[in-house]
Structure formats: structure tokens, C-alpha cells
Task: structure prediction
Amino acid sequence: QLQLVESGGGLVQPGGSLKLSCEASGLILDYQAIGWFRQAPGKEREGVACISSSEGSTYYADSVKGRFTISRDNAKNTVFLQMDSLKPEDTAVYYCAAPPAFTSVQAMCVVYPHLVHDNWGQGTQVTVSS
Result:
């Protein structure tokens, strides 16, 4: 059974940093594209950063470009999201997912959260506030 477990969230001040982790079980991470998605209060879930399998191609939402970095450690079966220069508008519950059958990481990040509204797991809360 596929299981993705998010961790690393917390409360930080504006301008601070957090590193989220997504540990995968029940799949071979080398062959899986992984995405980070978030849902803020009163807003729909959106794609934040996505990474392909072996090629390492990435896509970032415009709102986080230059501040967030997605990476993967296949030996640890884990995908990370390094978040720097955090802003209050980054406050949200962050989820990771492994969407199948997309032709690009951009399409995966943009389309997937609008197609699937369940089975997202618990996520990890990120709160950016002074």
C-alpha cells in the first residue's frame, strides 16, 4: 500500500526557513514523480513544487520561485522541500503526492490538485507569523 508521510512543518517568523520531508513507502522512489501541494485557509489546494523521477526536472509555482527548492534522496526514499524567505501567505497545510501519468512536472503540479480531492493524508502545517 502506497504511503506518503509529511513532516517538518512548524511556526516560523517571516523571512525564516523550514525544510519539509516526504517519506515514501510501498513504491520505488526512483521511478516516481513527486509533488508538494498546499492548501491555505479559504483557498483551494495548489501545486507548489514538483520533481520528476530520474531526470530531476522541476517545476515551481510563480509564488515560490527563488525561495523554495525541491529535491530527492532516493537512497532514503524521501523528497524534501526547502523553504526559505517565508512569507505569511505561505501559511498552509502542505501535502506531498505521487500523481501518475502526467507528461510534464508542470502539468502535474498545475492540474493534479484540481482533479483529486481526497486521499491526501494529514499533511504538515506551516505557519508563518511574527
User: Anything to note?
Assistant: The CA atoms of residues 34 and 98 lie 5 Å apart.
